[in-house]
Amino acid sequence: MQAEPSRHLAAAGPFSEAERAAVYRAIYSRRDVRNEFLPDPIPDELLQRLLAAAHAAPSVGYMQPWNFIIIRDEARRRAVHGIFHEANIQAADRLEGEQKLKYMSLKLEGILKAPLNICITCDRKRGGDFVLGRTHNPSMDLYSTVCAVQNFWLAARAEGVGVGWVSIFDHDRLKQELGIPDSVEIIAYLCVGYVDQLYSKPELAVKGWREKLPLEKLVYQEHWPETSHVLDFYRVVECRARLG
Description:
Mean pLDDT: 91
Order of helices and strands: HHEHHEHEHEHH
Strand order of the largest sheet: 1-2-4-3
Helix content: 40-55%
Number of strands: 4
Largest sheet: 4 strands, antiparallel
Number of helices: 8
Shape: globular
Strand content: 5-15%
Distance between the termini: 70 Å
């Protein structure tokens, strides 16, 4: 006989004021860390707490498609850094003038400075041919894994641990270096380590790369408006492209 749902429900309600403040503090003070890592190793028990937080993320059809590759070995991190460096040069070559100089001045990873790297993957075959909730949107497993990344990141912030997400890679070369099967996708390559200082605002905003968009310009009611700053931006880009 199936158990009654009520036996598996727990009381729900708002957190205390202090608990709410802690959650919002983690959200608003989280930063993408690149250069502020301390050399101190992350204790195993702390790493397990962070991984458990990631593993508690929601996932479509409860498929839990994530895996976590823990990378401490310096030689392997140097190999990964080489893959990043080549891709970063290729990215810079797409820019010109002042924009290229500004890009090259940015530090975009902490692969060698952070004592710990973690590659988070998505096994797209987990759960079999039919996964509840994924029948009409096959990408839901990817989104689920991103939720695990965010859980890890926020828990790390609460523990005084910094996280940097490195996305500039040739993914095929990175998969080969880490022995990742073809059917498994790399979602995030994270640099992880203790920090005692963080930027008060996102680093790219501090260094003038891009500013925070106003929330009021990103919220629409009931449907997408006929005019928006997004469409205006695309029109400007298109006009510039036509003018050469």
